[in-house]
Amino acid sequence: MSKTGKKTNFVHTMETFVEGKKKILLILLAVFLIALPYMLNSQYLVTVAVKIGSYTLLALGLNVLTGYTGLVSLGHAGFVAIGAYTSSLCAVKLGMNFFASMILGMVVAGLAGVLLGLPTMRVTGTYLSIITLGFGEIIKMIAMNWASVTNGTLGVKNIPRPSVFGYDLTIANNGLYYLMLVLVLVTTLFCIAVVKSKTGRAFQAIRADELASTMMGINITSYKILSFVISACICALGGALYASLIGYIDPNTFNFDVSTLILSIVILGGMGTIRGMFVGAAILIAFPEVSRFLMEYRFVLYGVILVLMMRFRPQGIMGWKSTMPYRLSKNVKEQVEKMDKNAPLNLLNETKG
């Protein structure tokens, strides 16, 4: 059997096993994630886990734009900064609840996504990347120079932890970890719903061929802007969570390195896959923590990893094509069954004719 055949058989066997044991595996995964803080028994490791979850959110957001719609962004740190600054300033200066300020940050980031999406409709590829890169730097400059609102280079200090009914969610009581789990779960389910919807199919069609999508009646402009908005809102959510985790932000917290790291997670995990975002975030966020002596060279290593991935596995670690049969919707199944039942009658009528 060919090498390709072996790979296909292995993937098919693995996917068939997972599909058959899905409920059991999901229960085991849920139990593992719930018990993880007690298994780690270390506030530092729990902090790393929350950080991994935060970057998973950021990767899920960028994946909607880059992985599914095919629009490469080098300035997504700007959306992260909007979410982090909006939620933090509302909490510190206005005393707003974390969840209310988080939603407000997502709304502001969504509006910024619309503003960024409109002028980028006529450009693609390298030009789009340059525009998004400029957007990220503009947001950083605004945070640095609008001192009356953002405190400038002094940043925002003493960002309060989220609280639920007066109960503070911190690393010490594992509350922040469980909040991260809930946000990641909700965001993942939302992304799955989007991908399986008409909107998700339109995103993937645009990524494959814009001209063919236009000929099929897809409004490319509207869907591109919608992709920017969804991506921006999810990244703002991750930014709000990350700000509450570290307790202090300044303009340098959201520099170009953050955009590079998010893009690296998407590419490493597998563009256009949801499972890959978890794997990519776990590898690239945990790696610096276990190799402190290489901290000065971590972005060099990220670059080497990306070059190797592009050369030997451009689809990413988890970016294989599924070998499972395509699931038809309930309505389509009913129509097919009706066609099968009427097939003998149609054949008889053709014979008589």
Provide structural commentary:
- With 353 residues, the protein is mostly helical.
- Helix content is 73%, strand content 1%.
- It is built from 15 helices and two strands.
- Strands 1-2 form a two-stranded antiparallel sheet.
- Helix 3 runs antiparallel to helix 11 (220-246) and helix 4 crosses helix 11.
- The longest helix has 27 residues, at 220-246.
- The chain is globular, with a radius of gyration of 23 Å.
- The protein starts with a helix and ends with a helix.
- The model is unreliable at 1-7 (pLDDT under 50).
Q: What radius of gyration results from the CA coordinates? A: 23 Å
Distance between the termini: 49 Å
Specify the helix fraction band. over 70%
Q: How is the biggest beta sheet arranged?
A: 2 strands, antiparallel
Secondary-structure-based class equals mainly alpha
- The amount of beta strand, in percent, is under 5%
**Mean of residue pLDDT?**
83
Side by side, the strands of the main sheet go: 1-2
Give a count of the beta strands, DSSP E runs of length 2 or more. Answer: 2
Order of helices and strands: HHHHHHHEEHHHHHHHH
Low-confidence segments, given as residue ranges, are 1-7
What is the approximate shape? Answer: globular
Number of DSSP helical runs: 15
